């Protein structure tokens, strides 16, 4: 897949031009690197950077951000803990040429069927911090793309295996309080890139062959 992807025409409306650009790129990535490439692939962490010729998708090698080969959410959290938190009052910023305007993660996992209550033993495991969705009967395999842009808006694409993707954009009309381990970590990453671009600059990694 080429690194310079063209945004799709159908995007959610927003007062922030960056929101539509990110939504288009994520939809394109999930379709090309996800559905067209197939399932049972490793998690992929990527940056969206604005270049004169278009939007560049830079993939970070898994050995760089998850050398211990642990759960991707845990690996992201370990890195994010070393970065400063995002200020509660963030002044919205425009997308400049060369800037990293979003950081995203695409991965596969399990979702809990709607309306299904956890058995007591699994509820106890979940409350202790363990992941339990993969233990549920009737669990559903999903591909997920999380991303956070430079203005701390959260994007989520969920595609059930054999189904259609669903896109949601949180904080589209106002400030957003990020929730969840992965969005909070991604929010710290993209804020670090934009707070001190020189210090946190990374050369784009080659697009993985999958």
Distance between the termini: 9 Å
- Shape from CA axes? globular
Low-confidence stretches: 1-14, 199-210
Mean pLDDT: 76
Please outline the major beta sheet.
7 strands, antiparallel
Please state the oligomeric state of the protein chains shown.
Answer: single chain
Order of helices and strands: EHEEHHEHEEEH
β-sheet strand percentage? 15-25%
* Biggest sheet: strand arrangement: 1-3-2-4-5-6-7
Put simply, the count of helices is 5
Q: Radius of gyration over alpha carbons?
A: 17 Å
Would you tell me the structural class of the helices and strands?
A: alpha+beta
Helix content bin: 25-40%
How many β strands by DSSP? 7
Structural write-up:
This protein has 210 residues and is of the alpha+beta class. 26% of the residues lie in helices and 24% in strands. Strand 5 and strand 6 form a beta hairpin. The radius of gyration is 17 Å and the shape is globular. Strands 1-3-2-4-5-6-7 form a seven-stranded antiparallel sheet. It contains five helices and seven strands; from the N terminus they run E-H-E-E-H-H-E-H-E-E-E-H. Helix 3 packs across helix 5. It starts with a strand and ends in a 15-residue tail after the last helix.
Primary descriptors:
disordered N terminus, disordered C terminus, 7-stranded antiparallel β-sheet, 5 helices
